[in-house]
Amino acid sequence: MTARIAYEAVEVGTELPAQSFPVTRAMLVQYAGASGDFNPIHWNEKFAREVGLPDVIAHGMFTMAEAIRVVTDWTGDPGAVVEYGVRFTRPVVVPNDDTGAVVEVSGKVAAKLDDNLVRVDLTAMSDGKKVLGMSRAVVRLA
Questions:
Q1: Which residues, 6+ apart, have CB-to-CB distance to 98 below 8 Å?
Q2: Contact 123/130 with Cβ under 8 angstroms?
Q3: Contact at 8 Å (CB) between 124 and 103?
Q4: Which of 48, 51, 63, 75 could be a cystine partner for 3, CB 3.0 to 4.6 Å?
Q5: Are 141 and 116 in contact, with CB atoms under 8 Å apart?
Q6: For 83-117, what is each residue's pLDDT tens digit?
Q7: DSSP label at 14?
Q8: What is the per-residue pLDDT across 41-94, written as a single tens digit (0 to 9) for each?
Q9: Residue 90 has what DSSP assignment?
Q10: Residue 26: exposure state from Cβ atoms within 10 A (0-12, 13-18, ≥19)
């Protein structure tokens, strides 16, 4: 696969389609099984509160993975991502209800680099608060 977006077709400031990702307790349990991260702050409300958290929180790597989907969906090729990093600024609090939480992600081309590379800056929000800082991906376009 190669990216379906042409380097020549984007400019600094090009916005990627924003997306919202639901996060439920069931998803956190599934992620724990897949990742091997069974820390009780991700599934046990009583434990999470005892250690000072407001409630169960999503795994940071789960949040990071959801955010990069905005880029991989835009390019059409997960292999187009050559570099990705974030700083975790706030946890995604996931209440035990039918709704859970929502992570809202937007992205914008921040720089055009050499060799058909672009830097995409992402903004990830949950409950009106920024949950990832310095969220940046370098992507190779067609």
A1: none
A2: yes
A3: yes
A4: 75
A5: yes
A6: 999 999 999 999 999 899 999 999 999 999 999 99
A7: P
A8: 999 999 999 999 999 999 999 999 999 999 999 999 999 999 999 999 999 999
A9: S
A10: exposed
For residue 43, give both structure tokens.
């599934």
Task: Decide if 11 contacts 109 (C-beta within 8 A).
Answer: yes
Distance CA 132, CA 124 (A): 6
Torsion of CA 80, 81, 83, 85, to 10 degrees: 170
What is the three-class DSSP state of 66? helix
In this structure, what token pair is assigned to residue 113? 């680099």
